[in-house]
Amino acid sequence: MSDWVEDVFGVNTGDGLTGKHYSSFAQVTDPIAHVGKDDFYDNDYAGFLEDSWKFRPHLTLNLGVRYEIQTIPQPPIPNTATSLTTEYTSKINTDSNNFAPRIGIAWEPFKGTVVRTGYGMFYAKTSNSTWYAVRVENGMFQQTFNCTPSTCPTLTFPNLIFPAPGATPRPRSRERSRRR
Asked: What is the pTM of this model?
């Protein structure tokens, strides 16, 4: 049987290590809000302008430009332990130079056939999970402890700093115990 199955379900294999088959584990705690989450909303703004010119009956030129900006709320609690952590956890810079030109050409060499070509620059939105990491996973708002039996002897599975949501084991019902 796998060690993790023995740990989770408390299977006793006679080796005296039931529930202790790990050599290390990571524990994350939120000493400020005590809930381990960060509810924030980012605002995305964008605009697009385009115009077309017909140089000849069978040749059209399209020119356009798009502008985008993504605004993010600043970190709620920066890590001010050192000047370096203060520098990198106090402010999220907003990328505001996202001008994206577009050009397209449509040519109809003969009736029923159109050849098109185009070029454009595009900007991708930064994922909110990245902003979440920048805002709260900075050593202040959320703290991570990497533990081994020698470095965190009082933190043994399942008695951790705090139980993970939904991870509290439920007592077995009598019905399930009788079936086994």
From this structure: 0.56
